[in-house]
Every structure is written in structure tokens, then in C-alpha cells.
Design a protein that fits this description.
This protein is of the alpha/beta class. It has helices at 6-17, 35-47, 72-79, 92-101, 124-135, 155-158, 171-181, 187-197, 201-209, 213-225, 231-240, 246-264, 272-288, 296-309; strands at 24-28, 62-65, 112-116, 141-147, 162-165. The chain has two domains: 6-165, Rossmann fold (3-Layer(aba) Sandwich), CATH 3.40.50.300; 210-309. The chain has a five-stranded parallel beta sheet, sandwiched between helices. Helix 7 crosses helix 8, helix 10 runs antiparallel to helix 11 and helix 10 (213-225) crosses helix 12 (246-264).
């Protein structure tokens, strides 16, 4: 069990023990809060309820829908265990193939679990197709929708799901996770990672593993001092790299949101409207980044400009 998951596990186990298990669940929380890890463990607990013996890995009755490799070359990399680029969306074809599986009985027992990670990234046709399964779920089929931004899901999908909300993790718990999983990080780096993570251990680990400390410091400086001559934004683009992958782009947006959210608590009342507007625009970028083909250089300049627009005026 991951740190901070005690509450959601209690709710899940209570549901398993109830006479009528709800058929669709929305696992909501910050990126990096361990929702997918929970989903896999929860799915195993769900299908084990029928009393049959079940394999610990590659279970035929646990279907996972996520981003596929972007092309045949990237598919080869995946099969070889190498890092690979993925498609931006979960497609309607993936949903339809899953629905074809639902016309048959589960392979080993009486239950089947379908995990969609992240459900936020389903294309429109995929969402509409999934809705049909949620409206008339086959007997023994249960859906776990992993979502970082529940507002991106169709209201009709949200209304058919029971919510499991993943809380923020305490600073001390994240520090323990970093010491265990990123022993190369010194205390100063861990402190910065915790401050930037906003309660997400995954974000803190990304901070260390992607070496985001300098990016973080530049964002803090832009927000504190502004950037009238664009020099800090130029340094921000240089630190981001010429061709950052989508994971680094998403991490940079989340980092900027965290920096801005942390500054709001200390900002004067008069500065609140512009900071709130900038945070709203960063949320928009976060929602668009998985599906829009952003130029990486323009994306990081947009992040820097939003932070500069929210900078505290200097005397």
C-alpha cells in the first residue's frame, strides 16, 4: 500500500464487502499520487472476490487501456523495454476493442476490471463509446477511470461513477519516499522537490529524476521579479531543452502551477485577480498539452509569460 492511500483503501474494501458493488469508479487526484498503482491493486482485490486462484501478473481479466506507442518504431522500443513516445489520445478503436471483450465471459472467474489511464485523454468518440458501456454495464464488469482532471470527463460519465479522491501526501511522507527512491538527492534538493510537488510524491520524484531544480528556481525568480527584458524566459527555454518529451513538458506545467499556487498564499490582496487568472491559464495549458501539438519552445515561453504577468510589482 502506498503512503497516503489508507483512506481510499478503506472505502474500496467497504465497497467490496457491500452487497451491491458499484460498477464504475473515478480515481481522482494530482498526477503522481499513485492512482494507477492503486487501480491495479484494487482490480486484483476485486476479481479475487470470487474465490478463484488468480495470477499476480498479466491477468486476463484486468484490461488496461492507456496511450499506445505513436508508431511501429516506438512499438518496437516498448517491446524491447526501452522508453518510447506515445499517441496523445486514447482512441475510440481502443474502447471498441475493449467492448468486444465484454461480450464474452471473464476468463478465470466471474469478474472483470477495466482500467483507463488517464481517462482525461480519451478522444471525444472514445468518451461517447465508453458512456454506452457505463449506461448498460455487462454483468461482472467494473470500470476504474484514472483521472488527473475530472472536469475533462463528460458530465454524463462523471454522474455514473463513484468518486475515490486521492489526498495530498504530507511533506514528511514525501521526504521518506524521496530518501528511499531517490537517494542521490541531497537535503536541499529534497526540500525544493517537496515544496514544488504540492503533495504529490510522483511530482517530487519527477523533480529529482528530471533535474527540475534550476527550472524551478527560474520560475520562482520570474514570479518574484518579473522579466521585462525576456532574459529569464530565454534561460527558462534553455533549461527546458530543445526537444523535451511530453512528460517533461507536462512536468514543467505542473511545476509552474505549483509555484504560482504556493505564491498566492503570501500575495497581497490586490495581486490576487491577476494571479488567479494566470493560474487558470496554466490549468488550460495543462488540459491542452496532452492533445495539442505544441511547439516546445513556444510552450515554455507561454509558461514564462504567464508567470511574469503574475509577478509582484516592485517599488
Amino acid at each position: 500500500m502506498l503512503s497516503g492511500h489508507d483512506t481510499v483503501w478503506r472505502e474500496w474494501r467497504a465497497a467490496l464487502d457491500s452487497p451491491r458493488m458499484h460498477h464504475a469508479w473515478m480515481l481522482a487526484g494530482r498526477r503522481g499520487s499513485g492512482k494507477m498503482t492503486f487501480a491495479l491493486e484494487a482490480a486484483h482485490a476485486l476479481i479475487a472476490q470470487d474465490g478463484q486462484d488468480h495470477p499476480a501478473q498479466n491477468h486476463p481479466d484486468i484490461l488496461v487501456l492507456t496511450h499506445l506507442p505513436s508508431n511501429s518504431d516506438e512499438e518496437k522500443k516498448r517491446d524491447e523495454g526501452k522508453p518510447y513516445q506515445t499517441k496523445r489520445n486514447i482512441s475510440v478503436d481502443q474502447i471498441r476493442r475493449m467492448q468486444q471483450r465484454l461480450t464474452t465471459r471473464p476468463t478465470l472467474g466471474t469478474r472483470r476490471a477495466i482500467i483507463i489511464d488517464p481517462a482525461d485523454d480519451m478522444e471525444k468518440g472514445a468518451s461517447n463509446a465508453l458512456l454506452k458501456s457505463l449506461e448498460e454495464p455487462p454483468a461482472g464488469s467494473y470500470f476504474l477511470l484514472v483521472t488527473h482532471r475530472p472536469g475533462k470527463l463528460l458530465p454524463t460519465i462523471r454522474s455514473r461513477c463513484r468518486l475515490l479522491r486521492f489526498p495530498q501526501i504530507s511533506d514528511s511522507e514525501i521526504d521518506a519516499i524521496l530518501q528511499k527512491n531517490a537517494p542521490q538527492a541531497n537535503p536541499a534538493t529534497r526540500h525544493a522537490a517537496i515544496a514544488a510537488a504540492g503533495g504529490s510524491p510522483g511530482a517530487a520524484l519527477d523533480f529529482v529524476e528530471m533535474n527540475l531544480a534550476e527550472l524551478h528556481q527560474l520560475m520562482v525568480t520570474i514570479l518574484r521579479e518579473g522579466d521585462r527584458d525576456y532574459s529569464l524566459r530565454g534561460r527558462l527555454a534553455g533549461e527546458m531543452g530543445a526537444r523535451p518529451d511530453r512528460l517533461r513538458q507536462a512536468a514543467a506545467i505542473d511545476l509552474a502551477r505549483s509555484v504560482l499556487a504556493g505564491a498566492v498564499a503570501e500575495a497581497p490582496k490586490a495581486a490576487m485577480p491577476v494571479m488567479i487568472d494566470a493560474h487558470s491559464d496554466l490549468n488550460r495549458l495543462a488540459a491542452q498539452a496532452p492533445t495539442y501539438n505544441f511547439d516546445a519552445g513556444l510552450l515554455v515561453m507561454e509558461i514564462g509569460t504567464l508567470l511574469a504577468s503574475a509577478a509582484m510589482p516592485r517599488d
